[in-house]
Amino acid sequence: MNVEVRGLVRTFRRTRAVAGVDLSIGPGVFGLLGPNGAGKTTLLRTLATVSRPDSGAVTLLGRDPADHRQRREIRRRLGYLPQTLSYYPAFTVDEFVEYFALLKEMPREQVPGAVARAIDRVGLAGRARSRLRTLSGGMLRRAGIAQAIVNDPQLLLLDEPTAGLDPEQRVEFRALLREIGTRSTVVVSTHLVEDVGAACTQVALMLAGRVVFTGTPGELVARGVGHGAGDAPLERGYSAILAGARS
Amino acid sequence: MTGLLRIEARRNPAPLVLPLLALLLWLTPLAQNTRPVALWLDRSVDVGASVELLGPFAAAAAAWTASRDHRRKMTDLLASTPRNPYARTLAAWLVSLGWMVAFYVALAAVYLSITATQATWGGPQWWPVIAGLVALIMCSAGGFALGLLLRTRFATPLAAVGTLAVIMGLMSMAVNSNAAIGLLSPLYPAFGLNALVFYAPQPDLSILKIVCYVGVLGLALGLAAWHFRADRPSVRRAGAALLAAGLAVTATAAGLDATARVGNHGVTVPAFHNAAAGHAVPYTPVCSHTRLPVCVHPAYDGGSELAVLSSLINKIAGPVLGVPGMPVRAEQAPAAPSGVQGDPPVLPIQPFIIQGTSLPPAPAESIDADIALSLFVPAHVDPEHATPAQRGLAVYLLRQAHDNPSGVWPLDQAITAAAARFAALAPAARTAWLTTHLAALRAGSLTPQDIP
User: Fold this and answer.
1) Are residues B323 and B382 in the same domain?
2) How far is CA B163 from the centre of its chain?
3) Model confidence over A98-129: pLDDT tens digits?
4) Which residues of A touch B11 (CB under 8 A)?
5) Residue A32 sits in which domain range?
6) Cβ count within 10 A of residue B367
């Protein structure tokens, strides 16, 4: 398993954002669903080694992120796209992606090729020389994805990656996720259940800092049969599980 | 690291402020002070003192760079990367600093090149220039640390204003309170400007400043490293080491600063003092061919210094020249103004720089008054201590030279009346009276009423 989480707790003052999460995630695309405030972003930040857990055990890519040497090794193999993409407006797309390739300590000679490849994979090759401040929201999101995948990460963490993408771009992006998922572990936090249905092999549903469901998208659909509200089978499964967990 | 530096260099905002900086410099006295007379030491000190303007800019640019990641909400994304965060931030700062240093070096090159075409004596003095450079780096490092610690856009104006306040505050302490700590201001001249060319430069204070600035630089960089201490032990250790070293060096500099003594030739710091520095440098003066020959140090031979000075002195002293005891020559001397001295008698003139073809009005009045009084006060006595009778005759000389001494010292009725009476005498009577009474006048035994 590339991600092993046991009894993970993360508290912000009086709010328990993650309240004892257990997860085992192997290669493939793993969807993380849940309403706002469920703890998805906090869990992803912890997996991205940005936030340290208050308690619990985390193993990423077979390494302990609490140890600084192992944490560095994890980060070299990590791709992360935060929920709110931040960027340096004066940088061009290729400078931005190259900057992160260098920060990820990629071998110098591999950087130019990897940068070009990542930008091409997100469909921004034609805007590689454009300043980030000139890009639309969707393009910025794709630039963010490019920096996340530039090092061919073994663990890719994406927080709301399809927000701001148009339907055509989302279809292309799901294909990209599936392709990366054949070699790596991709954890995608999203509100959009259709992304989960189209791209994920496994899915977890979080509510109030806890994982209330883990299974395949098919199992999620099955939980919604005859229950819940929603226009699509996945939405009905999602609603049914949340309703059950809240009751 | 080179890859990061390359990207940072391309996108660093510092070059955007450099044209503004150049414009501001053009408006400062630094730019005005590019006409002869060109004294190397004076010009070198000027370059170092440009930190007054460049320092706040360097601090602001560094604070802006340091707070960038937080302002741009990049911290999460950056924290997920393996690169040493201190090294990453340092790269951005180094680029910001590099632009400011390049500007300073260009400024020094231009300013000293202009000086090279004008100076008639000596060569560039590097200590003040180096001290200015280290001060600039220190200001930038201070802004960098502040930007990291405050992490808001307000860090930028705060760094600029804070840096300027510290520089000016220290200078004010040195000038107004004679506080030793004030000597460490980048603006405090490391050399006695009165003795710019007469003595071998004494770099003691410049060296002390460099030591102090290096210490503060270590403290600032240590503080910046300490900011990232949670990420990895090596950064924590580097931060602690830099803080300890910076503290030790700064404390040492503060200790040495307490031993500094301000003298006529500059500031002496025993720990750095070289016996060879401060000794008189031999020279052959350059003299005017006027009724009273006026001689200046060859360093003052550029521009109109000699012509203006000899015209001025001859205009003031003209009516009394030829009287026994009156000077046969006027000569620049590094000491404070005093009365005619030596045999044959020589009028010492305090060095000052004339730029253009005349003196600015305020210093001109003071200099004219000093020259007139020096003719009547005893040797080695400051003209400020002149008696009323001596002042009366000085007023006569100044008035006949169309000067108004009332702006320099208060004139009472007895003094002005004595001056008027003396002016009304026939030239031969004036010369005769002075010939008889000059010794008594200089001795201070005459009153204004004794003047005919």
Assistant:
1) yes
2) 19
3) 999 999 999 999 999 999 999 999 989 999 99
4) 88, 90-91, 95
5) 3-213
6) 21
Mean pLDDT taken over chain A: 90
Residue B278 maps to a domain: no
- Quick one: what percent of chain B has pLDDT higher than 70? 95
Nearest CA in chain B to A96: B7
Of A75, A84, A91, the CB nearest to B81: A75
Whether residue B281 lies inside any domain: the answer is no
Is there a contact between B79 and B85 (Cβ–Cβ < 8 Å)?
yes
Give residue-wise pLDDT tens across range B284-329: 989 999 999 999 888 888 777 888 888 889 988 888 888 888 889 9
Three-state SS for A48-92 is: CCCCCCCEEEEEECCECCCCHHHHHHHHHCEEEECCCCCCCCCCE
Q: Are residues B44 and B119 in the same domain?
A: yes
| Site of tokens 């794709």 | A142
Strands (E), A85-192: 155-159, 185-189
Residue of B3, B68, B233 lying closest to A102 (CB–CB): B3
| CA dist., res. B415 & res. B396, Å (int) | 9
pLDDT at B359: 66
Give per-residue pLDDT as tens, B140-185. Answer: 999 999 999 988 889 999 999 999 999 999 998 888 888 888 899 9
Mean pLDDT, to the nearest integer, of B59-79?
A: 91
* Cβ separation A91–B7 shorter than 8 A: yes
C-beta atoms of A103 and B82 within 8 A: yes
Q: Which of A224, A210, A189, A219 is nearest to A31 (CA)?
A: A189
Q: Do A98 and B3 touch (CB under 8 A)?
A: yes
Q: Give the residue-averaged pLDDT of A171-187.
A: 88
d(CA A29, nearest CA chain B) in Å: 20
pLDDT tens digits, one per residue of A202-221: 999 999 899 999 999 999 88
Q: How many CB pairs under 8 A join A and B?
A: 71
Say if A57 falls within a structural domain.
yes
* Domain contains A153: yes
In a domain, B279, yes or no: no
Contact criterion met (CB < 8 Å) for B82 and A48: no
Domain limits at B234?
Answer: 2-272
Q: Which phi and psi (to 5°) does residue B262 adopt?
A: -90, 120
Contact A48 B232 (CB under 8 A): no
The confidence score (pLDDT) of residue B252 equals 96
Residues B205 and B318 in one domain: no
Residue A224, token pair as written in the block: 């919604």
Number of domains, chain A? 1
State the average pLDDT for chain B. 87
Per the CB < 8 A criterion, the answer to whether B377 and B442 are in contact is yes
Q: Could you tell me the pTM of the whole model? A: 0.85
SS3 B182: helix
Domain with A169 in it: what CATH number?
3.40.50.300
The answer to whether position A241 is within a domain reads no
Select from B272, B300, B335 the last residue of a domain: B272
Using a CB-CB distance cutoff of 8 angstroms, which residues of chain B are in contact with residue A104?
A: 81-83
Q: Does any domain span residue B339?
A: yes
Q: Is the pLDDT of residue B355 over 80?
A: no
Cβ atoms of A11 and A54 within 8 Å: the answer is yes
Whether residues B82 and A95 touch (CB distance < 8 A) is answered with: no
